Amino acid sequence: MAESLMFTKARKLAPKIVILSDFIRKRYGEKDMTNQLKRSATSIGANLAEAHYAESTADLLHKQKIALKEANETKYWLEVLYESGYLAEADYKGASGAVEEIIKIVAKSVSTLSKRSS
What we know:
about 120 residues; mainly alpha; 23S_rRNA-intervening_sequence; 23S_rRNA_IVS_sf; Four helix bundle protein
């Protein structure tokens, strides 16, 4: 599969979030939010991988919209974990910055695809 920039960034983010989530879970015993964070972060790349083999433009757009929603959810959980004292500022800034990049790229792609399919 030829990797798009958004997929590459999502693919690089996923293991970092898995490691970060596991660290928080082991250090603080926090399970609920870290499970949600891990689920949403890994779902971004999974949906973009599915989008690579979309059956139609509508299917491609749908998968990218789901990835965008998951990226926004990931950003939310990072914010909550940071504000709750589970995430160090450097970890928060690094992870949230990476998620913001993905959000911008996917949002632009969704916007472009939406205009083309209208």
